[in-house]
Amino acid sequence: MTMNDVSDIACNDQGFDVAVDLGPGWRIDAGAEPSMDAWLDKAKKDPAAAEVGMYLTHNGVVRATPRMAVRGATSDERAEGESLGEVASIDFSYDTDGLIDAVKAARELPGVHYIRVWLNEGTLKVGESLMYVLIGADIRPHAVDALQTLVGKIKNDLVVEHENYE
pLDDT tens digits for 87-143? Predict the structure, then answer.
C-alpha cells in the first residue's frame, strides 16, 4: 500500500466517509464528525499504545470573533477586525495531499507513535467543529510539540477559511 491509498470508503446517513490509512497508528478521516472517546479507545488498542505515555487532543471550532480581531498584528488590524461584526459562518476547505504530507512529517517527530486527524469542510456555523487532531507520544513535551507543529502546519498552510459576517 502506498501512503496515498484510500483505505476506507463507506456511505453513511451523512454522506460519504473517506479515510486515508497511513499504516497502524496513522489515519486521516473525513465525513461525519468523530467521537473523541471512540478515537481514544481505538488509540489505546493500537499496537503502538504500549509506547505512548500521553494522548493530546485538539478540537478547533468556528468562533464568532473575526480572525483579524484575534490575530491582527497591530492594534489597528485588531480594531479593523472588530469592526467587521460577528462571524456567522466560515467557508472551510483544505489541501488533502498537503494534509497527508503534514501527517507523514509529524509522525517523524521525536516520540510520536500515534496520529489521527479529521477535518470538516463546507460552510460551517459558529460552534461547529473545524478539526480534530489526536497525538499519542511517549512523553508530554513530545505530544505538545507534535500537536503544536501539526495544527500550526494545518492552520497556516493547508486550510482556506473565508469568514462570513452577520
Answer: 999 999 999 889 988 988 998 999 999 999 999 989 999 999 999 999 999 999 999
Cβ neighbourhood burial of 92 (10 Å; 0-12, 13-18, 19+): buried
d(CA 3, CA 103): 10
For residue 102, give the C-alpha cell: 503534514
Contacts (Cβ under 8 Å, ≥6 apart) of 166: 85, 86, 87, 88
Model confidence, pTM: 0.83
List Cβ neighbours of 129 (8 Å cut-off, separation of 6 or more). Answer: 33, 59, 60, 61, 120
- Using alpha carbons, select from 48, 27, 45 the residue that is nearest to residue 119: 27
Ramachandran angles phi, psi of 118, nearest 5°: -135, 130
Let me know: does 121 contact 93? Beta carbons within 8 Å: yes
**How does pLDDT run across 19-62, given as a tens digit for each residue?**
566 666 666 666 788 899 999 999 999 999 999 999 999 999 99
4, pLDDT greater than 80: no
Cα–Cα distance for residue pair 152/134, rounded to 1 Å: 14
